[in-house]
Write a structure and sequence with these properties.
By secondary structure, this protein is an alpha/beta fold. It has 17 helices and 14 strands. Strands 1-2-10-7-8-9 form a six-stranded mixed beta sheet. A four-stranded parallel beta sheet has the order 5-4-3-6, with helices on both faces. The chain has a four-stranded antiparallel beta sheet with strand order 12-13-11-14. Helix 3 packs across helix 8. It starts with 22 loop residues before the first helix and ends with a strand.
């Protein structure tokens, strides 16, 4: 078949059939990219298995050079292009992992790579893409505007557009993740749990899974704020949009080709709430000592929020990426500590007089609760002029230790309460 775009017609005009993505295509992609991407480890997690009640096997795609599986599909697409196309160069619209994977391998192969990003893209992502050889063009305020400009440049400059997911070559490259999981994982798996954005990863992985083990349960996971593929499969109308931690799978319009593959080869799609995504990111760092982005933690988030659905099963879970802003990661970890009761803010009403705060500190000392910050509020309060509100941020062993402190404060006549997270 011919799937090479021309310089006069954007490549998204192509229509692909489901049978253009087969196990043989994925196996061929695996041979093509062999030695040029990291064969990431697949390991059993004893602790996560105990927590979830399932046997959890993790595929660490966050250990790729650019910290995401996207390298596989981008490289396969590049290697399948005729030399003259590669010489002219390729272009993509992306503010995430696809841009880095395409730029890295394009530069390695001597292919000029242009990446169009919205002007709102964080500077760190622009710098990461440029550091691996991509020529970044900033255009528009949204991804849609950037994508439209990329398609214009594709025609104007005679470049080849490399889509992030909606193409058999890209999906076949992504599917090599599953080949390695079947080769390196347990003797048999009951279930694969795979994040879904545009659908390229799960299209390739489900193709492998259903061909090698037809009885296997293939489950996709989307962020609840971006249920685009979920809506497509269920003919539902859930709202799509918002500020999700899993921006790597925050896709409003899933691929046309990948949608057909998913309809044919995926058993179910689940939605992951933001609190579950945050908890999963935190658990993976604490337990596995591995950094994942929100999208990379989506599979674990779905398992944690649906324990009965997965109980007792042997599950292959792909950690598809690890590109997360360090400040955001710090916020996620601190918020998770707060939800678990290890960090808290206690609000106490006091009289504005010498020694009042000192007495309260004695209660914290007695219960061995560490004080981090203290805030006084005398002005913006409805208390009498001689009163004040004191917020005390503190660190405890667990929620039970905090509850014991609060009971003691109240028993000694203080009005004390936890300040809940918004």
């Amino acid at each position: 078949m011919s799937t090479n775009p021309t310089a006069t017609q954007p490549s998204d005009a192509q229509v692909f059939a489901v049978d253009q993505l087969t196990l043989d295509d994925v196996r061929a992609a695996a041979e093509r990219i062999k030695g040029q991407v990291v064969r990431t480890p697949m390991m059993h997690s004893q602790t996560l298995s105990e927590i979830t009640g399932a046997e959890i096997w993790l595929k660490f795609e966050n250990l790729q050079f650019t910290a995401a599986y996207k390298e596989r599909g981008a490289l396969n697409a590049l290697l399948l292009m005729p030399e003259e196309q590669r010489a002219r160069g390729v272009i993509a619209a992306s503010a995430g992992n696809h841009s880095q994977g395409l730029s890295y391998h394009g530069t390695r192969l001597g292919v000029p790579v242009t990446i169009v990003m919205p002007r709102t893209t964080p500077t760190v992502k622009i710098m990461q893409t440029e550091s691996v050889g991509g020529n970044v063009v900033l255009h528009g305020e949204t991804f849609d505007e950037a994508n439209a400009h990329a398609r214009e440049l594709e025609v104007e400059r005679g470049l080849t557009f490399v889509p992030p997911f909606d193409h058999p070559h890209v999906a076949a490259g992504a599917g090599t993740v599953a080949l390695e999981m079947f080769a390196d994982g347990p003797d048999s798996m009951d279930c694969l749990v795979v994040p879904i954005g545009g659908g390229g990863l799960i299209s390739g992985m489900s193709t492998v899974a259903k061909a090698q083990a037809p009885e296997i349960d293939v489950v996709g996971v989307q962020a609840a704020l971006f249920p685009s593929m979920y809506n497509s499969m269920k003919d539902d109308g859930l709202p799509c949009g918002g500020d999700t931690l899993a921006e790597g799978i925050a896709v409003k319009q899933p691929g046309a080709f990948t949608s057909e593959i998913i309809r044919d080869r995926v058993d179910e799609i689940l939605l992951a709430e933001e609190t579950d995504l945050e908890h999963a990111v935190s658990l993976l760092l604490q337990i596995e000592k591995t950094v994942v982005e929100g999208a990379g933690a989506a599979g674990l988030a779905a398992i944690l929020s649906n324990p009965e659905r997965f109980k007792g099963k042997t599950i292959g879970l792909v950690l598809c990426g690890g590109n997360i802003d360090t400040r955001l990661l710090a916020n996620v970890l601190l918020r998770d500590l707060a939800r678990s009761g290890r960090l808290a803010r206690i609000r106490v009403r006091l009289q504005d007089r010498p020694g009042a705060l000192y007495k309260v500190m004695g209660e914290f000392d007695t219960h061995n609760v560490n004080i981090i910050e203290i805030y006084h509020q005398r002005i913006f309060t409805s208390l009498p002029a001689k009163g004040l509100i004191t917020d005390i941020e503190c660190e405890a062993r667990d929620k039970q230790q905090l509850d014991s402190l609060l009971e003691s404060l109240r028993a000694n006549g203080y009005q004390a309460q936890l300040v809940e997270m918004a």
